[in-house]
């Protein structure tokens, strides 16, 4: 059984996810498709945006930080953490670490990588598809993106539960900062809505995810059976030596749980008024 002393509910683990899109790049400014290969760094405005959201989040206590491996995402993440460190929100070793996860990359757009967004709109229209659902040649389909972000979400649930088994008597709230990309975050939210019942706008694909906008999701995992023995058998060696997908699958097979996800804030960028 998992527990969280903060809410004192046996068999329940709660955590918060704060999702941040990276700051602006020159490709954003030129309205080009960045995907995975066109890995531009933050431009001047993007750095200011990242610093502004960092200051907006300076009172947050993040216990877990995950980031896409692109320059634009890691730069945004590092600016946020640097400002957060300055305000004293540190882990016990004095450093708030973050973890790179390739599953948080933007959707791969194949032959359209680096091309104008207008080209995507044109091809999508010709094929009678919504541009967010259209898959260009050699590109990654929406279903493939959904599978990898679902894999990440299951991994995150595993991590939160592993910590919970050691935290009986602790009141530390678990809060994950996730820095990624507009397409990936939109896919994540769509997954949470369609698979896990999170209450989201039905037109989520049409909602604009601005640079450094913030979305906050509250997650509640309710375990339906006693999983304490399995969780204690999940040693650190297993977690680090096995592939994360295998660990997540093993966890899913042994632990039956329900996911409740509540959207607290969707694509909020009020902090940009300070720019």
TrEMBL record:
InterPro entries: His_Pase_superF_clade-1, His_PPase_superfam, PG/BPGM_mutase_AS, Phosphoglycerate_Mutase. Keywords: Hydrolase. The keyword Hydrolase applies. It comes from the Eukaryota. It catalyses: beta-D-fructose 2,6-bisphosphate + H2O = beta-D-fructose 6-phosphate + phosphate. Belongs to the phosphoglycerate mutase family. This is Fructose-2,6-bisphosphatase TIGAR.
């Amino acid at each position: 059984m998992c527990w969280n002393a903060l809410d004192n509910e046996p068999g329940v683990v709660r955590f918060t996810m704060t999702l941040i899109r990276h700051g602006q790049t020159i490709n954003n400014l030129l309205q080009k498709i960045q995907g995975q290969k066109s890995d531009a760094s933050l431009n001047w405005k993007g750095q200011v945006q990242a610093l502004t959201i960092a200051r907006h989040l300076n009172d947050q206590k993040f216990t877990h930080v995950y980031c896409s491996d692109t320059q634009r995402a890691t730069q945004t993440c590092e600016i946020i953490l640097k400002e957060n460190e300055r305000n004293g929100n540190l882990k016990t070793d004095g450093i708030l670490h973050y973890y790179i996860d390739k599953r948080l990359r933007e959707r791969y757009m194949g032959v359209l990588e680096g091309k104008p967004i207008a080209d995507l709109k044109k091809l999508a229209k010709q094929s009678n598809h919504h541009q967010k659902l259209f898959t260009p040649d050699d590109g990654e389909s929406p279903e493939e993106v959904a599978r990898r972000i679902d894999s990440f979400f299951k991994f995150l649930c595993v991590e939160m539960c592993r910590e919970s088994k050691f935290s009986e008597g602790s009141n530390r709230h678990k809060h994950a900062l996730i820095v990624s990309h507009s397409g990936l975050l939109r896919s994540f939210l769509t997954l949470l809505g369609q698979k896990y019942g999170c209450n989201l706008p039905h037109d989520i694909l049409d909602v604009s995810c601005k640079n450094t906008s913030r979305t906050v999701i509250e997650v509640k995992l309710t375990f339906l059976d006693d999983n304490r023995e399995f969780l204690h058998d999940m040693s650190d060696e297993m977690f680090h030596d096995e592939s994360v997908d295998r660990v997540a699958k093993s966890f899913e097979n042994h632990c039956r749980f329900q996911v409740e996800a509540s959207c607290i804030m969707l694509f909020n960028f009020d902090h940009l008024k300070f720019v």
